[in-house]
Amino acid sequence: MAGLEVGFLAEVRIQEGEPLENALRRFKRKVQQEDIIKEVKRHSYYLKPGEKRRVKAALARKRNRKKARKEAD
User: What is the per-residue pLDDT for 1?
Assistant: First the structure.
């Protein structure tokens, strides 16, 4: 994957006698905490600046509608 920084890599060392399932669980948690998946998806394709603004505005509208619905309850 061209353009990705090496700093994105999450690393988990398997401890002596630790089951692989536990290490895998720790790895998944670490990847989720560091938002690695979100970053990879964000960089997987190019958005023109105008399209980026439209997406950002649409997300803001969605967030505001959700907030208004929540306050109405």
Answer: 45
